[in-house]
Amino acid sequence: MISSSEELLAPPEVAVDNATPTLVAVDGLSWHYIVTVDTASPEGMLSARVTAQDLAENPADTVFNDFLIVDATPPSVVSLQANPSLARPGDQVTLNLTVSEPITDPPQIWVGPWPASYVQPGKADTTFSYQFTVPESSTAGGVPITVEMADDAGNTAQATITGILEFGAPLPLPGYRYLLGILLMLALGLLIRKPRGVRL
């Protein structure tokens, strides 16, 4: 949006490096433009030049530096840690994710086919924490973790990380023979009699 302190002879002319501005609306002394960035535009800051004339035909020529950032690089995973790295059904796992650039919306994390729950970012907006409870239906072995994310420019990315989390088998319940042994010991204990007194 471009605003003027007084009425102009015509809408301001806007020139942007590697982009095409298009006037879409006028609201009093404000002009609204849509800027279409060229596909071949390099990444980085873009500058704009605005020229206009007031009703007395006094010219104005203003340059706005670094008014738009071109970002075509998707975010990436810098690090992902699981604590603990070996978890059994029912255990809770904390996942700490760090990404390469600030992200407003928290990434989505999937542990195998199960989603992890977002907790809170650790610092700024590049570090995020998640929690996940290993389901009873899980099978023992390594499990892949998938991260889906998008940066503020709309660049999307998906990454699958392996080797940082392993599901363990459920802890074994007491076996039949073990239970039978306990019952047998109890039965033998019931059969033990107090020693008889000695007669003189």
Q: Gist?
A:
This protein has 200 residues and is mainly beta. 8% of the residues lie in helices and 49% in strands. The chain has two domains: 2-70, no CATH class; 77-167, Immunoglobulins (Immunoglobulin-like, Sandwich).
What's the overall geometry? Answer: rod-shaped
The secondary-structure class comes to mainly beta
The total count of helices amounts to 1
**Sheet with most strands: strand arrangement:** 7-9-13-12
The CATH class assignment of the largest domain is: Mainly Beta
Strand content: over 45%
Poorly predicted runs of 5 or more residues: none
Integer-rounded radius of gyration:
34 Å
Question: Major β-sheet, in short?
Answer: 4 strands, antiparallel
Number of domains: 2
The CA-CA distance between the termini, in Å, is 118 Å
Q: What's the CATH H-level homologous superfamily of the largest domain?
A: Immunoglobulins
- The total of beta strands comes to 17
How helix-rich are the residues, as a percent range?
under 10%
Tell me the series of helices and strands, N- to C-terminal: EEEEEEEEEEEEEEEEEH
CATH fold name of the largest domain = Immunoglobulin-like
By CATH, the architecture of the largest domain is named: Sandwich
Q: What would you say this structure looks like, in words?
A:
With 200 residues, the protein is mainly beta. It folds into two domains: 2-70, no CATH class; 77-167, Sandwich (Immunoglobulin-like). Helix content is 8%, strand content 49%. The protein is built from one helix and 17 strands. The chain has one helix at residues 176-191; strands spanning 2-3, 13-16, 19-27, 30-37, 44-53, 59-70, 77-83, 86-87, 92-99, 108-111, 114-115, 117-123, 127-133, 141-142, 145-150, 156-161, 166-167. A four-stranded antiparallel β-sheet has the order 7-9-13-12, with no helix packed on it. β10 (108-111) and β11 (114-115) form a beta hairpin. The longest helix has 16 residues, at 176-191. The chain is rod-shaped and about 115 Å long. The termini are far apart. The model has no long low-confidence stretch (mean pLDDT 86).
